[in-house]
Amino acid sequence: MHLGIDFGAKLAGTTAISFAKQGELHLLQSSKKQDADAWLRHLIAEQNPSAVFMDAPLSLPGVYRGLGTDFHYRACDRAVGAMSPMFLGGLTARAMQLRAAFPEIPFYEAYPAQHVRLHFAGAMGYKTDLDLFLEKLAERLPHPFAQQPDNWHQVDAALAWLTGWRHESGEAISFGAEDEGVIWV
């Protein structure tokens, strides 16, 4: 069992998690003013997943380890049009810290927006019409939702989970390089 995470601001209530259980896709979301990092650490320890697929940078540009010359972007960011891990700063550091807290669990970087661009014809309704997009998403999920997503954070957690399912099925596509950072879709 793997987890999909849409990683948000620490206290904003925008971090969501998705996982399959008993043939259904479940969603949980942090609460405002709740420490999302502590909440995630607790859930990951409790669930003990086989892997975590997370919508957040899990590494810095290679130049900080003597690779390349780009101080702002990794090759994977440029390939998919993602934001710079440096611009995301604290979020990147928190994501890397969460990964370090669970060295026995593989963490993979997912990018829901690129997943939609590649696997959803025309990205119908993504980030504009929740009900329309949920119809399209339901057609591609191997499990029905236990409860419908209420917002885009939950949708992105489900998309991160779907990337994990594609990865486990050998269908996921990777962008970037292992020595710097890889984004999976």
Mean pLDDT: 96
Largest sheet: 7 strands, mixed
Overall body shape: globular
The largest beta-sheet arranges its strands as 3-2-1-4-5-7-6
Low-confidence stretches: none
What count of helical segments does DSSP give?
Answer: 7
Order of helices and strands: EEEHEHHHEHHHEE
Provide tags for this entry:
185 residues, 7 helices, alpha/beta, Nucleotidyltransferase, domain 5, 7 strands
Short overview:
The protein has 185 residues and is of the alpha/beta class. It has 7 helices and 7 strands. A 7-stranded mixed beta sheet has the order 3-2-1-4-5-7-6.
Helices, strands, pairings?
Layout: E1 2-6, E2 16-21, E3 24-29, H1 36-47, E4 51-55, H2 75-80, H3 85-88, H4 90-101, E5 107-110, H5 112-119, H6 130-140, H7 152-168, E6 174-177, E7 181-184
Parallel strand pairs: 1-4, 4-5, 5-7
Antiparallel strand pairs: 1-2, 2-3, 6-7
Helix pairs in contact: 5-7
How would you describe what is shown here?
There is one protein chain. By secondary structure, the protein is α/β, with parallel strands linked by helices. The protein has one domain: Nucleotidyltransferase, domain 5, CATH 3.30.420. Helices cover 38% and strands 18% of the residues. It contains 7 helices and 7 strands, in the order E-E-E-H-E-H-H-H-E-H-H-H-E-E. The protein has a 7-stranded mixed β-sheet. A hairpin with a 2-residue loop joins strand 2 and strand 3. The radius of gyration is 16 Å and the shape is globular. The two termini are 18 Å apart. The model has no long low-confidence stretch (mean pLDDT 96).
